[in-house]
Amino acid sequence: MDFMQISKKDFQKFVENLIQSKEEVVGVVKKGKHFAYDILEKSEQLCLDYTETILPPKKYFLPVEETLLKYKTGVASSYEATYGKSPKVIIGIHPGDMAAIALLDKSFSEGEKDSHYLNKRANSTLIGIYPTQSFPHRFSNSMIEKDAYKAADCFLVDLGNDYGIEVVTEKGKKIASAMKAVAGEKGLNEKIAQAKAKIKDEVSMPFSRRELSEFLHNKETHAEWKKRAEKCFSCGSCVLVCPTCYCFDVKDTVALSLQEGERKRMWDGCMLEKFANVAGNHNFRKLAGDRLKHRIFRKGKYIIDKFGMAGCVGCGRCSQACVANIASPVDIVQELKK
Ligand code: SF4
Ligand code: SF4
Predict the structure, then answer these.
(1) Band of residue 74 on the pLDDT scale cut at 50, 70, 90
(2) What is the extent of the structural domain holding 180?
(3) Distance separating the N- and C-terminal Cα atoms of the chain
(4) What is the mean pLDDT of the chain?
């Protein structure tokens, strides 16, 4: 990894030039009291000093709804895959969300490759930033280890008047050179390490992610699932804001003529009651407690066992989104541990 440096003023100029070059550039912007990823129209909109965004940047690679293919029926039946566009550059991704993209990269590359996701991913350069503001629900340091580097092209570290830059990939090198970032002054890597060491989470998982997977073994029948789920509205907010959730539904929309149609996929979530409804109107996770248990097992065990990567990156969005205040993985694990 190379270490470089750029003044904040020059970084803003670079973002402005990028926007003016007519490339689609996405960054974190302030929306009232909240933050969200959005297309930048001018560099002043970019806000890198933020707590957490409402939704993670995965929406640019796995949109809420997308058309996978269009088809024609009848004698001359045919189909054509459709591929959506992704932004050229996404700026301001926190390490947790970056680690989540690394997980999606892995998941959508396994077995039958998901070209819709992978095409969009290949077209984008990802510029991360280490958090500068605390977010009371975040526990990423307990979960992500080095996974963020599997997706990031480069990471910014706030050094006051400058950004230190960790350059991770060839794409990262290109973008750092487009920024006219300079090779770091002597001791820059130590300065970056010190700035990163100051970033502490306010909560933490009581286990490493590997220990968590082992801890969850044999906890399927624990009374906590049912007890906690008594307050669950099955609204699905906790999974719909989650950067590592990648379940989707696929639906065909056929024209009235029955001659053509579109196949679409849209986000789905295991905390929604109908998610596990199958033929014959059977539901294999009918009870809210079973859905909550599944969600935590998927985050804390199944994904780590399958991919060796975090199924939960500790972004804390689920804790914030849950109106019943029961979704926090840390609180659930603490309760199971008691
Ligand atoms: S489970 Fe919660 S804390 Fe973990 S990645 Fe998903 S939204 Fe973030
Ligand atoms: S745990 Fe909370 S956010 Fe998730 S479905 Fe239940 S009530 Fe909704």
Answers:
(1) confident
(2) 2-337
(3) 42
(4) 96
Strands (E), the chain: 2-7, 25-31, 34-39, 65-72, 78-81, 89-93, 125-129, 154-158, 162-167, 182-183, 248-254, 260-267, 277-278, 282-283
Report CA-CA distances (Å) from 153 to 105, 171, 207, 241. Answer: 14, 6, 29, 24
Check pocket membership of 322 for ligand 2, CB cut-off 6 A.
yes
Specify the number of domains making up the chain.
Answer: 1
CB-ligand 2 contact for 238 (6 Å cutoff): yes
Nearest ligand, CA 99: 1
Residues 216-265 pLDDT 10s: 999 999 999 999 999 999 999 999 999 999 999 999 999 999 999 999 99
**Are the beta carbons of 18 and 197 closer than 8 angstroms?**
no
Q: In angstroms, what is the span from residue 296 Cα to ligand 2's centroid?
A: 12
Angle between helices 95-109 and 115-122 (to 10 degrees): 140
- Kindly give the distance from the C-alpha atom of residue 313 to the centroid of ligand 1, in angstroms, as a whole number: 6
Question: How many whole angstroms separate alpha carbon 198 and alpha carbon 329?
Answer: 24
Which residue is closest in CA terms to ligand 2's atom 2?
322
Residue with tokens 């796995």: 62
- Give the span between the Cα atoms of 156 and 63, in whole angstroms: 26
**Distance between Cα 296 and ligand 1 center (Å):** 10
pTM score? 0.96
Q: For 103-107, 198-202, 211-215, which range has the lowest pLDDT when averaged over its residues?
A: 198-202
The number of the ligand nearest the C-alpha atom of 58 reads: 1
Say yes or no: CB of residue 229 within 6 Å of ligand 2: no
